[in-house]
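Structure (tokenized):
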């Protein structure tokens, strides 16, 4: 078996961590049980490009239990947990191509190695695997039935490929399932982004001006949790509806040019580019901390920061201190990459349980229905989404009501009124 990881000797530690995560993933465990028996993915080859974390390891195990031949590479150079990669290779015989801190060249070489499997299904997180196939590995297109996409940024990229007529195979937007983004993007990113900032810096959030760029699913979660820690949250938005929502949720809303002057901590989660750039670094207070939790490290314009700084040093493991010409210091966390994965461990297993249940059941759906799909971006079928929510509630011991016959009739008719 071919693989490329940091150190296979780390496997014991990784195995224990994978088991710990598994205990928080009851929905995925139920799917695992059924997959072991029914082997619905038998004969399928799946190449996954996901953050190499304990939760992903459990997804890989489930896909393998379902009969698939799987391979895994990282969807971000900084997010790989090397002990997890080691355990996947040693204990579960799953080939992994990922080393934390790998440079861009190695990152892409690893994507290519994963593609050597000639997958029938691609599982992407951010779109790098699919775009590599379209740009450089078109020979693997023949075997591909369909793909799945885990995050907002990837879905945006594929919709734009579809609009330009260049998308060559169907992709199912796992991100857009309600049991994914309602929970993973909001509660998962919310909690783990704060976790990443605290692990990187150990600062006190209470009383600080905490600026969140983007009030989408992730931004709402980050703002909610920062407020819970006592920070004064300021929202920066371009969408009037989201800005209004943030205002009514009780936050101050202002343009980034104003927020730049008063913020103590900045977090970008927009999926957009250059939210924080030269003019903002010029305006920031001495000691400002900047971090990103959006998919790519382009939300903070690091070349601008590098240009403005007269000095740079790594002051803590995930904290780079930039000294400006006037002596002010600006601290960049995790090289501007997803801070929740760079400095912490990504989302808690309990939310990834639902996201990855969507991935596993969508892979099964592709096996059964992939041939009917065109080269477009599709939603996860609603039955899968609802089923996952039902199973998750059951696993939490929460029961809900069902409509009475009278209520069902009322909700589906128009005759009854005042
Ligand atoms: N860190 C993680 O683990 C994690 C998890 C899920 C998603 N993501 C990533 O986070 C990003 C956001 O995802 P989301 O689901 O919240 O998307 P979303 O579309 O719900 O929200 C993005 C928000 O950013 C706003 N925005 C865009 N450009 C802006 C600008 N210039 N200034 C201010 N606001 C701007 C948009 O109006 C929108 O409200 C994506 O890149 C996604 O892939 C990261």
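Design, position by position:
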């Amino acid at each position: 078996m071919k693989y490329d990881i940091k150190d296979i000797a780390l496997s014991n530690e990784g195995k224990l961590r994978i088991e710990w995560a598994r205990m928080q993933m009851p929905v995925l465990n139920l799917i695992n049980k059924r997959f072991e028996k029914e082997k619905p993915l038998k004969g399928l080859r799946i190449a996954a490009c996901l953050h190499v974390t304990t939760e992903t390891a459990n997804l890989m195990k489930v896909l393998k239990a379902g009969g698939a031949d799987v391979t895994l590479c990282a969807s971000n150079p900084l997010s790989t947990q090397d002990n997890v990669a080691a355990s996947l290779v040693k204990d579960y015989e799953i080939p992994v191509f990922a080393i934390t801190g790998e440079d861009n060249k190695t990152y892409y070489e690893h994507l290519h190695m994963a593609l050597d499997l000639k997958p029938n299904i691609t599982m992407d997180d951010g779109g790098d695997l699919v775009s590599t196939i379209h740009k450089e590995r078109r020979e693997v297109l023949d075997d591909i039935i369909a793909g799945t996409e885990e995050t907002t940024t990837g879905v945006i990229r594929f919709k734009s490929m579809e609009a330009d007529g260049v998308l060559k195979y169907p992709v199912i937007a796992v991100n857009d399932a309600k049991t994914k983004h309602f929970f993973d993007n909001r509660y998962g990113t919310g909690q783990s982004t704060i976790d990443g900032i605290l692990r990187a810096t150990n600062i006190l959030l209470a009383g600080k001006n905490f600026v969140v760029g983007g009030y989408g699913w992730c931004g709402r979660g980050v703002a909610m949790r920062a407020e819970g820690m006592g920070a004064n949250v300021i929202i920066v938005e371009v969408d009037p509806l989201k800005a209004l929502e943030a205002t009514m949720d009780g936050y101050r809303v202002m343009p980034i040019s104003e927020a730049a002057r008063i913020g103590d901590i900045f977090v970008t989660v927009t999926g957009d580019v250059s939210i924080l750039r030269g003019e903002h670094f010029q305006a920031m207070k001495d000691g400002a901390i900047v971090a990103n939790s959006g998919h790519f490290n382009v939300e903070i314009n690091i070349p601008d920061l590098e240009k403005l700084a007269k000095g740079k040093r790594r002051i803590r493991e995930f904290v780079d201190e930039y000294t400006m010409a006037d002596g002010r210091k600006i601290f960049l966390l995790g090289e501007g990459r997803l801070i929740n994965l760079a400095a912490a461990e990504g989302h808690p297993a309990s939310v990834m349980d639902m996201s990855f249940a969507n991935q596993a059941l969508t892979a099964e759906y592709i096996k059964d229905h992939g041939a009917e799909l065109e080269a477009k971006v599709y939603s996860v079928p609603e039955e899968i989404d609802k089923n996952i929510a039902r199973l998750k509630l059951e696993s939490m011991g929460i029961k809900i009501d069902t409509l009475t016959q009278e209520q069902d009739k009322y909700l589906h008719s128009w005759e009854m009124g005042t």
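Reviewer-requested clarification: The chain has a mean pLDDT of 97. The longest strand covers residues 309-316.
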